[in-house]
Design brief:
Elements lengths: L1 E11 L4 H11 L4 E8 L5 E11 H12 L4 E6 L5 E13 L4 H10 L3 E5 L3 E8 L1 H11 L3 E8 L3 E4 L8 H6 L2
Antiparallel strand pairs: 1-3, 1-4, 2-3, 5-7, 5-8, 5-9, 6-7
């Protein structure tokens, strides 16, 4: 069965490392649905979080091949355990007449923040899980015209004391 996988990778922060990593996905016919790259506390390393769909077996094979890349330090398929996943949304909405009274309760319900409220539009910031971001957008779409939708892509960390480790080591202990 095809499932959504959230994969977190610690990668050498070197020119071409990200291209080599993402190239592995494209050459095997996988579309990366979300990609987030950021520095870590170590200036030589970056943390990459990507979302891809595939069967558990196919993604396990892809992760195994990914772990063999020289630039990959550690990898974790977050969907194999408990994890936190969040995304940032910034959306600009040109509101229909009277919609400001309807949008405010929705913003409050989702714990969003109005970062700009001009006379006829709102710019809203919201951090939540992907499902709630999607639900929020579906609820406000009829209140006006969406002039800009910017999503950060998923970021994730494991729950508890588990940290990223070598994918090969994870599978040897299974």
């Amino acid at each position: 069965m095809v499932m959504r996988h959230v994969i977190s990778v610690i990668l050498q922060n070197e020119v071409g490392a990200l291209t080599r990593m993402t190239g592995l996905f494209s050459t095997r016919g996988y579309n990366i649905e979300s990609l987030n790259v950021a520095a870590t506390d170590d200036k030589n390393l970056s943390r990459v979080t990507l979302v891809v769909k595939g069967t558990d077996k196919a993604i396990a094979q892809l992760n195994s091949q990914l772990s063999k890349l020289v630039d990959v330090i550690s990898i974790n398929d977050m969907t194999l355990g408990d994890y936190f996943e969040r995304e940032l949304l910034i959306v600009k909405v040109k509101l229909n007449t009277g919609a400001d009274k309807k949008i405010l309760p929705i913003i409050n319900e989702y714990k969003g923040e109005i970062i700009d409220d001009s006379i006829d539009s709102f710019t809203i910031q919201l951090t939540d899980n992907v499902k709630n971001i999607d639900n929020f957008l579906s609820r406000i779409i009829n209140l006006g015209d969406l002039h800009a939708v910017a999503r950060s892509g998923s970021v994730s960390v494991t729950k508890g004391q588990i940290t990223l480790s070598s994918y090969a080591n994870q599978n040897l202990s299974s």
